[in-house]
Amino acid sequence: MxxxxxxxxxxxxxxxxxxxxxxxxxxxxxxVTVYKEGAQIKRSAEKTIQSGRxxxxxxxxxxxxDKNTIKVSANDSVTxxxxxxxxxFLNKDQSNKQINRLNESLESLVDSTDLYKKYLIVLNDEKSxxxxxxxxxxxxxGVDIENLKATSEFYRKRMKEIELEILFNNNKxxxxxxxxxxISRQLNELNVKREYTTSDIVVVLSVKNKLKAEIKFEYxxxxxxxxxxxxxxxxxVNNPVKMIYKAKIYQNSDIDWKNIKLTLSTGDPSVSGFxxxxxxxxxxxRNYSYGQRVNYDETFSGYIRGKITDDIGEPxxxxxxxxxxxxxxxxxxxxxxxxxQAPYGSKLVFSYIGMxxxxxxxxxxxxxxxxxxxxxxxxxxxVTALGMSREEKALGYSVQTLTANELNGRTSGxxxxxxxxxxxxxxxxxxYDDNFKSDKKNVIPLNMKKNETNREFIINIPxxxxxxxxxxxxxxxxxKLKSEYVHTxxxxxxxxxxxxxxxxxxxxxxxxxxxxxxxxxxxxxGKTFLDLGTMTDTLNLSxxxxxxxxxxxxxxxxxxxxxxxxxxxxxxxAWKISVKNMKKYPVILIVExxxxxxxxxxxxxxxxxxxxxxxxxxxxxxxxxxxxxPAETQELLLKYSVKFPxxxxxxxx
Length: 653
Fold this sequence. Notes:
Layout: H1 2-16, E1 21-25, E2 28-34, E3 39-49, E4 52-62, E5 65-74, E6 79-88, H2 91-132, H3 145-193, E7 198-207, E8 211-221, E9 224-234, E10 241-251, E11 257-265, E12 282-283, E13 288-289, E14 303-309, E15 320-323, E16 329-331, E17 337-341, E18 347-351, E19 358-361, E20 369-370, E21 381-383, E22 389-391, H4 404-407, E23 416-419, E24 440-441, E25 446-450, E26 455-465, E27 472-481, E28 483-490, E29 494-503, E30 514-520, E31 523-530, E32 538-545, E33 549-555, E34 561-565, E35 568-581, E36 587-594, E37 604-609, E38 614-616, E39 621-628, E40 633-645
Parallel strand pairs: 1-4, 2-11, 9-30, 14-20, 28-36
Antiparallel strand pairs: 2-3, 3-8, 4-7, 5-8, 6-7, 9-10, 10-27, 11-26, 12-13, 14-17, 15-16, 15-18, 18-19, 21-22, 23-32, 24-27, 25-26, 28-29, 29-32, 30-31, 33-35, 34-35, 35-40, 36-39, 37-40, 38-39
Helix pairs in contact: 2-3
């Protein structure tokens, strides 16, 4: 069928371009603009053409290009008459010839290796023969001295020769094996790629006089993209946060990008630019309808790609991704990446043992998800194919079960969250000059262009991105951000104190959602995920535990009592929170605690003492913002009582 199509294409082209010069021209990639999903390739070619019309075949292009996005231009004296795209299946023959040559080399190497291995067997047999026959003379007769010397000399000389020959042959076998591995790997790559076709762009040019035509053309491909990630470094609380902005770029177009200029765009060409129309809101007898649903995402391809991470930004391998209501599904790879085909508007179900199950509607070709630990206990549940869970007794075969305790042991990390301007937000404070302004320092030549709907990061040094679907790291830029450093503790849960950086002007640098490595004083403290879609005016970044600020929360036993007043029970509780600054400079410490909240009108909570804490009456949250001088100690009191009927069983902390 493919040969028939190729012959038909050739006949049509020959009829269309009969009587015109036809030239095959190789082009080179000048620049690539990489989007979150997809890439725009810009190429150029030069060719001297005669007067009249000339057919230029720009060959060796990826078959992944979208023919609807082809754009061709030439210098002023050249007229572009027509442009056509076609697939080229003949390049497979060249690939097959190379495979045949490599197979011949591989067979020769295997034969040579077998020959040397057989010779090694002969040498080892001879060595064994000499070792077995070392004994000379008999039990009744002695050994002549001259014969002994001759025998010893022969044994020594021959054993030396054998050992050297064994060493030589072993080295030969090792060398041949290395070559066999290299050729086998190359054959594996070619065997995969030979199933791919290339494509050509056929351009008809018209000129009045002979000249050198300068052709520029571009097109869009789908099998490419980039994801952002960061290195966040803090030297000490007297210096700003250094944010290093990086990108992981991948492409699988079957053509390597060699030493090309890259532009990284935050845009997504797969998302339609058409604004939806609000249809009439029609109520019916049983339900309501919005009329006919129109799919405005016309460029949606049906293929979804994404990355699944946990709450600390680590990739999750083996996550079940299932199209809801179908048996279509897949699982994430070791790096958390998945790809699946699903219709627009369908729902994907993401499930993983010990994590909350998430459902997400398909509205874009990229879906990056963060799964959080489940709040429910993990029972003895068996996860079968495509994430379907069954009780062990419902299965007709034996299984291995894991309890919640056996699944514990996940590494804790840091977490970034947004904080809006609430009454609990700390006032601006820093340990360095308040007149400091965030500055932007380019690690490599880079310009950031801000458009109406996206940002472009123009990298002016060449990069090579191979077509192997692997992620290549590119450092984009670095900048410093003014930060307020505060210490935070929740002694009811843990008496540890965490150093936190509050960053306010992060919106000016075109940052996107992505994972981040956090370093404090050149020490790696963990990994996090910047979910900037949930951020407001402040980026809250935990830098780890600070052991130089000490917190203790002790119960005041004299006040802690249980009393019965007729049918009513009264529980009184009191806590003393002590904090001490062991540093040589002052610190700001935010202490969080809580009052209990009554679950119904039969329970009454009386607030007795909260040491001037800021209180959220809806949640019971208490916050103290303390300024601690070096070596200073402060104490906070929390006292309350709870009254409820005797028949209620309530545990009061």
